[in-house]
Amino acid sequence: MPLLETHELKKYYGREPNMVRALDGVNLTVETGEFVAVVGQSGSGKSTLLHMLGGLDQPTSGYVVVEGHELNGMSDEQLTIFRRRNIGFVFQNYNLVPILNVYENIVLPIELDGNTIDTDFVSEIVNTLGLDGKRGNFPNELSGGQQQRVAIARALATKPSILLADEPTGNLDSKTSQDVLGVLKLTSTQFHQTIIMITHNEQIAQLADRIIHIEDGKMIREGCGRR
Ligand SMILES: Nc1ncnc2c1ncn2[C@@H]1O[C@H](COP(=O)(O)OP(=O)(O)OP(=O)(O)O)[C@@H](O)[C@H]1O
Asked: What structural domains and CATH numbers belong to the chain?
C-alpha cells in the first residue's frame, strides 16, 4: 500500500464562467521514504495540492488517502488531530513562535498532543540539523536559514508519516537555500523521511528522487532527480 495516494483530485474555485480549476484530476502515489518535488509555475496549483495532501482544505471531488486513512471523510476535529500526528509542515516563512526558544519551538507539537518527549530522538534531530548550540536562542536571534532548520526540526520531532514543504527556501538567498536543501536531503536519507516539496524552481527540484511537473492543475510529466 502506498503511503499517500490521490485519486482524480479536483479543486475548483468560484463558478462558471469564472471558475478556476486549481486542481483538475491529480492521481499521485507516494511510497514510504520517497523525496518528491512538485514543480510548476506560479498559479499552476502547487499550494492547492499541498493543502489537499495535508488535510488543510477539502477537495471539490476525488480523495486523498494517507496511511490508509481517507482524509475527506474526516471531521475538522479529526483532521486537526490527524495532521498533528501524521503530517509535518514546513512553510516559506518558518512560522516559529517568537516567545519560545529553539528547543521549546521544536517540542511544542509533541506537547500540544500531550505526548512524552523522546529526548534522545529530539537530540538526534537537533544535532543532525546543526542546532545544538542554539537550543536556548529565540527565533529573532537566528538567521533565516537557521530558523528554517528549526522549522524542519519541529516538523520532524513528531515523527510524521510525511513532511510537506511549501517553497521551503523561498525566503532564502541561494547559498542558504543550498544549505537548507542539504538538510532536507539529509533528513530524507538519515531518517528515511517521506518528503513532498513544492517549488517553482527546476534546479531545486533536482534534489528530489522524483519530480512531478504540474500545469493548470494537472500533472503533465514525471521524472527523476539527480539525487
Ligand atoms: N481561495 C482561492 N480562491 C480562488 N482562487 C484561488 C484560491 N486559491 C488559489 N486560487 C487559484 O487557483 C490557482 C492555483 O493556485 P495555487 O496557489 O495552488 O498555485 P501555485 O502553483 O501554488 O502558485 P504560487 O507558486 O504563485 O504560489 C490560481 O489560479 C489561483 O489564483
From this structure: 33-56+75-224 (3.40.50.300)
